[in-house]
Amino acid sequence: GCEAHSDGDVLLHCVVDAILGALGLPDIGQIFLDSDPKWKGAASSVFIKEAVKLMHEAGYELGNLDATLILQRPKLSPHKETIRANLSLLLGADPSVVNLKAKTHEKVDSLG
């Protein structure tokens, strides 16, 4: 796993950053400060819900989300639909607008 102040879910953190960026806001680390004990060990789903709330307050709705996870292990293919469905629920979005790709670097570099 990765070291993080919260639960460190890389997919959800990237989605939060994408939403915040689309709103012209700072990144996740500036909105949810790691110096704030409130966020220590927080579930990344909390950050998603907060980002969606900010999006709605700004008058926006999610159009589409396309996310790509790059990792060698674990293989995500058997879990992609479950992850996609859970992400859709967290976002309050129809699953048809949420897309998830899983890639490896075929053991070519440090990511693979």
Task: Compile the SSE list and pairings.
Elements: H1 10-22, H2 28-31, H3 44-57, E1 65-70, H4 80-91, E2 98-103
Parallel strand pairs: 1-2
Helix pairs in contact: 1-3
Please, could you describe this protein's structure?
The protein is of the alpha+beta class. It has two domains: 1-61, 2-C-methyl-D-erythritol 2,4-cyclodiphosphate synthase (60s Ribosomal Protein L30, Chain: A), CATH 3.30.1330; 64-112, Macrophage Migration Inhibitory Factor (2-Layer Sandwich). The protein is 38% helix and 11% strand. It contains four helices and two strands; from the N terminus they run αααβαβ. It has helices spanning 10-22, 28-31, 44-57, 80-91; strands at residues 65-70, 98-103. It has a two-stranded parallel ribbon. α4 (80-91) links the parallel β1 and β2 (98-103). α1 runs parallel beside α3 (44-57). The chain is globular. The model has no long low-confidence stretch (mean pLDDT 87).
Write a compact overview of the structure shown.
With 112 residues, the chain is α+β, with helices and mostly antiparallel strands. It contains four helices and two strands, in the order αααβαβ.
Any key phrases for this structure?
MECDP_synthase_CS; alpha+beta; globular; 60s Ribosomal Protein L30, Chain: A; single chain; 2 domains; 112 residues; two-stranded parallel ribbon; Macrophage Migration Inhibitory Factor
Secondary structure: number of strands: 2
Sum up the overall morphology in one term. globular
**Helix-strand topology string:** HHHEHE
CATH class category name of the largest domain: Alpha Beta
